[in-house]
Amino acid sequence: MRVIIDCDPGNGIPGANIDDGLALALAIAAPQISLEMITTVAGNTPVEVGYAVAKDLAKRLDVPIPVYCGASRALREDPLPWREKLDHGVEHFGLRQLWEDVPTPQASRHAKPIAPEAIGELICHNPGEITLIATGPLTNVAIALQLYPQLIHAVKKIVIMGGVFNVPGYMKDTNFGLDPEAAHAVLTSGAPVTLVPMDVTTKTQMLHADLDRLASAENVLGRYLEQTIRPWITYSMRTRNLPGCWIHDVLTVAWLLDSSLATTTEDFLDVSLEGLTRGMTCRYGRNTLRLDVGIPEPKGVMIEILQSVDNQKLLSLIEHYIHRYHV
Known about the structure:
Layout: E1 2-7, H1 19-29, E2 34-40, H2 47-61, E3 67-69, H3 79-93, H4 115-124, E4 130-134, H5 139-147, H6 151-154, E5 157-161, H7 174-178, H8 180-187, E6 193-196, H9 198-201, H10 208-215, H11 220-240, H12 250-257, E7 262-271, E8 281-284, H13 286-291, E9 303-309, H14 311-323
Helix pairs in contact: 1-12, 4-5, 5-8, 10-11
């Protein structure tokens, strides 16, 4: 399985989510996957920070995976309100000390933002072979589609962590909310898409005890995950009143390894671009299209949507591959 992961990793960054890093770790550890490229986008972390996190992981594991920096901001959305919300959370809760023993990857401002070109060229030069996993805002993917329209037919599949339909407290998710235009462009492009929305990822959970089992692998990957995930679990417990933390992004990789982890359905999807609903995920049921004349004809193709997950099976799968990893 040849894979690109486009992401916004935050492992080792105070107050930043660790689920992208866990997804990368699983993709690296699973022998069925050939992770051929990592690209970063502004989202959970600024793009240069995510780039540093991905480079740091590749360096620690001594794996020759190319890492490319991508878009530093959304196509249109003002990044400042989102950036302030994401960056200031750890200060608001006064929990920065949770990361005091975790080395922070140093951001580089010299990397050229060529991720969309790198994504487009690899996919279009290998038609039908590359699966693109996107776990951050879809800015890089949308730009790649603009630059390489043939990517729609050349990509094997695009697996996206994003969107939300019915999760209390979430009118829109961060990935689509940070760049609604990009999400709209990708979902309606006609490319084969599988969506992994918050409705299913908020049914995942990693506890400290689960992380203890990963750390017992006693290999470099287990140590990396233990060091960078431990403070985030505690942070999540204190700020979100959870027994552990959600592990949204890793489900994209895990589902490719074992589709029995989750049930799926299909619908046409889009993202609202106007008014109070801007950034919201819109769902067009097939029956609704036939019965309600006022519903506009949807663009694109029917999209596969994950809707439930076996969390224990997911954790067991992650543990299986992390424990068997060796350089």
